[in-house]
Amino acid sequence: MAIASARKNAAGNKVAGEIDFRVGTLEGLGGGFDIVLANLLPQEILSMASLLPAQIAPGGVLIISGFLPKQRKEIAGAFAGQKLQIRQSRVWKGWACFVMGRINGRE
User: Fold this and answer.
1) Which residue, 31, 60, 100, 105, has fewest beta-carbon neighbours within 10 Å?
2) What confidence category does residue 62 fall into, taking pLDDT thresholds of 50, 70 and 90?
């Protein structure tokens, strides 16, 4: 269902041909992505905090969303030990989002 919904959203935004949709585990992806987007429930984000950074290419970004503004401190803390820094933090319509990158930008 997630893939079908993502495809529909991409089509509505006229970017469907630019996105590769896949089902699998983080371990099976191999990493090296310029942009990693995780719009998940907070408990899922927290459980993947040690796995998501490995998917980011040097100079890439990790965008996480799907958590409440009051959960920002907990979510930020989970990524603090992963050599990521928050570059932007946004709140929109009751939801929070972080855009993160590697501390040195290249690692």
Assistant:
1) 105
2) very high
Which residues, listed in sequence order, are joined to residue 73 by a DSSP beta bridge?
none
Per-residue model confidence (pLDDT) at position 43: 95
Return all residues near 106 (Cβ < 8 A) that are at least 6 apart: 58, 59
Token pair 């990693």 in the structure block, residue: 36
**Domain harbouring 64, CATH code:** 3.40.50.150
Question: What are the backbone angles phi and psi of residue 40, rounded to the nearest 5°?
Answer: -135, 170
The per-residue pLDDT for 38 is 92
Residue-range definition of the domain harbouring residue 87 = 31-102
Question: Per-residue pLDDT tens for 30-55?
Answer: 778 999 999 999 999 999 999 999 99
- 39, two tokens: 């719009």
Do both 23 and 37 map to the same domain? no
Domain co-membership, 41 together with 1: no
In what order do the strands lie in the sheet containing 56-67? 33-39, 56-67, 95-102, 84-92
